Amino acid sequence: MISFKPLSSAAHGCLVTVVLLGEGRERDAALPAALVQNLNALSLKSGKVESLRAVMEGQVCTLLFGMLPEEVTYDALEELTAEVVKHLRTLKAAQVDVLLADDALLQMSGALYKQLLLADDGFDRYQTTGLAPITSEKKDDDKKEPFAPGFTLYLPESIPQAEEERKLREAADMAMGIRAARRLVNEPANVMTPERLAQEASQLAQQHGFDIEVYDEQQIQEMGLKAFWSVAKGSDTPPRFMVMRYMNNPDTDKLLALVGKGLTYDSGGYALKPAAGMETMFCDMGGAAAVIGAISVLAASKAKVNVVAVVAACENMISGHAYHNGDIIGSLAGKHIEVVNTDAEGRITLADALTYAATVLNADQIIDIATLTGAVGVALGNEITGVVADDEDIWQALQQASQASGDKVWRMPHFEHLEKHNKSERADIKNSGGRPAGTATAALFCRAFAGGKPWGHLDIAGTAYQSKASAKAPLGATGVGVELLTRAARTLFGQ
Ligand code: BES
Ligand code: MN
Ligand code: ZN
């Protein structure tokens, strides 16, 4: 619930008041005198977390922190919000009043609201407290309630309320999509199987209003998805192929495809990963979660876009029916792939999903997103997503989305000469170009199956999952990609 009040009516008697303020006369003029006095007494100076103070007066708690306009960055806001939410949870705040008296802060009101709704989103549904009865495994319907207090924004009279309201609703939709993606990724592989992932996507489709078709292992083979099936067939847990559609811009025929890597587990196959590298490989469907989250947000917010999301979901396992290192496999595109490394499986599954998007769905632009290479984490660390794009419009849209969302991206090269690393002596292409420029060569493998369509590629292997809680986000899935894709899609449709 969001409501608005004029700034001049802000009394020093709200249950919880978060004051985000720049300093100076303008601020003081806009606020009730009692509050200014209180602020000055605390001499709040900067946006550092140490400047956060809780003032208890009977039932009333005022949480105050100051932020200088030049300090209002995404990173600072994320850290502060995480801290504020911790306090609000302890106080069991049902109502949050936020006073924004500065232009720089007003521009961030959407981001602030989104962060308020995301900050406490840890994965704790399997942490049973106390002596639990044997049947204590939590069911889906007793999920922890998301932190969603009433939210009142106090605005200077000069600010149009309708515009603010739109911004905050958009932020709430975004938080919903990010939370959904995080949950899909955080669930371990024994729970989030391809079948379950398809069920979850179908539920979101029904809830937010987009179409979905799900194909089973039989249909996958009949459809000629030979590359995808080669990876999937090693597991006793059956694969699923999902095509989701949200068509809401009748003014144009243009179709944008979002393709997400959906490995619900990646053991490496016969190029078996060591235990340490395998431990979090349930996160290898982070790309799938991102496209499912993004299409949910686009539908929930009724964006004027035509988008399809494609996910080829399976496990990469070892067994008597698994593919081998050295196999030569077919693909929907008709190209033969030499499997030099069964652990470079993501690009093989993406190959068919990309061809499907380019040819069967005839998409005009394609963006894929995948936890694809360890190399991207080596190059960029765990807070920057690697992008490869051969289309300037797509790159621009992603870069713009990055600036608006705070999800950092960096463009990696796609020089033609890198293509030779993927050249096979035995087939049309091989699935690994080795260690040098590993992120770029993996991306170029994907491009080879995008049917020559304008294409962009996000490698989120470094950013999709964090094994330690940070100041900004809890341990686990980050939901990276949901906002980047949602915003990029809107931009590409001129919104
Ligand atoms: N799923 C992994 C990539 C990954 C690594 C995701 C770390 C998340 C965190 C991918 O399938 C993989 O195994 N890539 C190999 C490619 C190599 C065999 C060419 C890699 O990066 O080592
Ligand atoms: Mn792998
Ligand atoms: Zn993988």
Structural features:
2 domains, 19 strands, alpha/beta, eight-stranded mixed sheet, Aminopeptidase, 36% helix, 495 residues, 16 helices, elongated, binds manganese (II) ion, single chain, 20% strand, Leucine Aminopeptidase, subunit E, domain 1, binds ligand BES, six-stranded mixed sheet, binds zinc ion
How does the SSE layout of this entry go?
Blueprint: E1 2-6, E2 16-21, H1 25-30, H2 33-42, E3 53-57, E4 60-66, H3 74-90, E5 95-100, H4 103-107, H5 109-118, E6 150-155, H6 161-186, H7 194-208, E7 211-215, H8 217-222, H9 226-232, E8 240-247, E9 256-266, H10 275-278, H11 286-300, E10 306-316, E11 328-329, E12 337-338, H12 346-360, E13 365-370, H13 374-380, E14 384-389, H14 392-405, E15 408-411, E16 429-430, H15 438-447, E17 455-459, E18 465-466, E19 476-477, H16 482-492
Parallel strand pairs: 1-6, 2-4, 2-5, 5-6, 9-10, 9-13, 12-16, 13-17, 14-15
Antiparallel strand pairs: 3-4, 7-8, 8-10, 11-12, 14-17, 18-19
Helix pairs in contact: 3-5, 5-6, 6-11, 7-11, 9-12, 11-16, 12-15, 14-16
The structure holds ligand BES, manganese (II) ion (MN) and zinc ion.
